[in-house]
């Protein structure tokens, strides 16, 4: 009866996902609220209080908050170095959150907590050495070594999406560089590559026909066309898999993981994406490292962040 609950919070650009989770990683309640830049911390505090009232539970039921936020995080102080989309620079998120909620808090990068969530309750299956890469609008990454996230000297550890994949003449990335993996393996990158590939492709193609009819191109269209053995779609996916497999092999060679977990919206393509990635990964990885690593699709979907948030509240507070 006296078991304390953990609060997991995953801050996104449009919604804030929230959950009360017990010490075993099981959901008590989960919900989300809109992200309103001007009142993020206050809105989180109010949402926690409202949910406690709904469940008829006192504030003392909560052990603390674990929260993931975009951008590099100073893990020691809980400050956000910079979150461009939210207009934050050196923002003391932990201090504000603790002040508003009256609860102890711990803050980490959103991709890092997704990796921890997958380690604890998802595809990581208890592996303590794990690489997690999330393929969405961008490419996020989290690297876990011996059960601990690699943060690096100033919070930018695990930035897999910004490995330079095309050294010269690559597409511009939001980070200010060119040729980042994110410009290729993200949903937007796959769409861009497909449109460029069509200009050179002279045969009939389902993908090409759909683009000409709709004027739109999405990563889902690419994988749907691949399922129908469209040759142009296969060329696009092979190109993406080459760069992603090479990047993951290089990261794996550095940390010797047991599991590589691929998540994010693009991962819904499943084995159609994983098989060519696995093939390129095995081509480039150091053989001994390759023997120890398996590649799997993330299992937790949108719940990974709040479960990872609960994990850092459980283990760090």
Strand order of the largest sheet: 3-2-1-4-8
Overall geometric form:
globular
For the record, what CATH class of the largest domain applies? Alpha Beta
Q: Beta-sheet strand percentage?
A: 15-25%
Number of beta-strand segments: 13
Count of helix runs: 11
Q: Tell me the count of domains.
A: 2
Terminal Cα span: 21 Å
Average pLDDT value? 95
- The percentage helix is 40-55%
Q: Structural class of the secondary structure composition?
A: alpha/beta
| CATH level-two architecture of the largest domain | 2-Layer Sandwich
CATH fold category name of the largest domain? Nucleotidyltransferase, domain 5
Secondary-structure element string: EEEHEEEEHEHEEEHHHHHEHHEH
Going by CATH, the homologous superfamily of the largest domain would be ATPase, nucleotide binding domain
Radius of gyration: 20 Å
Uncertain stretches of 5 or more adjacent residues: none
Describe the sheet with the most strands: 5 strands, mixed
Task: Explain briefly what this protein structure is.
With 317 residues, this protein is α/β, with parallel strands linked by helices. The chain has 2 domains: 5-117 and 303-316, Nucleotidyltransferase, domain 5 (2-Layer Sandwich); 126-299, ATPase, nucleotide binding domain (Nucleotidyltransferase, domain 5, 2-Layer Sandwich), CATH 3.30.420. It is 41% helix and 22% strand.
């Amino acid at each position: 009866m006296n078991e304390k609950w953990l609060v997991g919070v995953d801050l996104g650009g449009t919604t804030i996902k929230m959950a009360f989770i017990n010490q075993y990683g099981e959901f008590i309640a989960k919900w989300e609220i809109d992200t309103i830049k001007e009142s993020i911390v206050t809105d989180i505090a109010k949402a926690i209080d409202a949910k406690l009232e709904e469940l008829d539970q006192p504030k003392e039921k909560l052990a603390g908050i674990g929260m993931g936020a975009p951008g590099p995080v100073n893990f020691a102080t809980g400050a956000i170095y910079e979150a461009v989309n939210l207009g934050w620079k050196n923002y003391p998120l932990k201090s504000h959150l603790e002040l508003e909620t009256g609860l102890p808090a711990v803050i980490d990068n959103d991709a890092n907590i997704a990796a921890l969530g997958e380690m604890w309750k998802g595809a990581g299956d208890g592996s303590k050495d794990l690489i997690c890469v999330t393929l969405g609008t961008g490419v996020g990454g989290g690297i876990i070594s011996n059960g601990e996230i690699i943060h690096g000297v100033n919070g930018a550890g695990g930035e897999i999406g910004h490995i330079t994949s095309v050294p010269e003449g690559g597409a511009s990335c939001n980070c200010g560089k060119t040729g980042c993996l994110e410009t290729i393996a993200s949903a937007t990158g796959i769409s861009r590559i497909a449109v460029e590939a069509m200009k050179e492709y002279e045969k009939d193609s389902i993908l090409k026909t759909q683009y000409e009819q709709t004027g739109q191109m999405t990563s889902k269209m690419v994988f749907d066309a691949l399922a129908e053995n469209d040759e142009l779609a296969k060329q696009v996916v092979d190109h993406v898999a080459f760069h992603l497999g090479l990047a993951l092999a290089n990261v794996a060679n550095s940390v010797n993981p047991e599991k590589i977990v691929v998540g994010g919206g693009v991962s819904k393509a499943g084995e159609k994406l994983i098989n060519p990635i696995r093939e390129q990964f095995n081509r480039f990885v150091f053989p001994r490292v390759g023997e120890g690593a398996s590649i799997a699709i993330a299992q937790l979907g949108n719940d990974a962040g709040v479960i990872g948030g609960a994990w850092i509240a459980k283990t760090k507070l």
